Amino acid sequence: MSFVAVCGLLVFPVAPRPGAAQGPADLQLRFDNETNAVHKAKLLQKLGDAQLEEARRAGKAGDHNLLGLTLEKYRDNVRAAFDVLKKQHPDAEKQSNGYRQLEMHLRKGIREVDDALVVSPEDYKPPLQLVRQDLIDLDDELLKMLFPRRPLNQRAPRPPAEKQL
Question: Are 75 and 131 in contact (CB under 8 A)?
Answer without folding.
Answer: yes
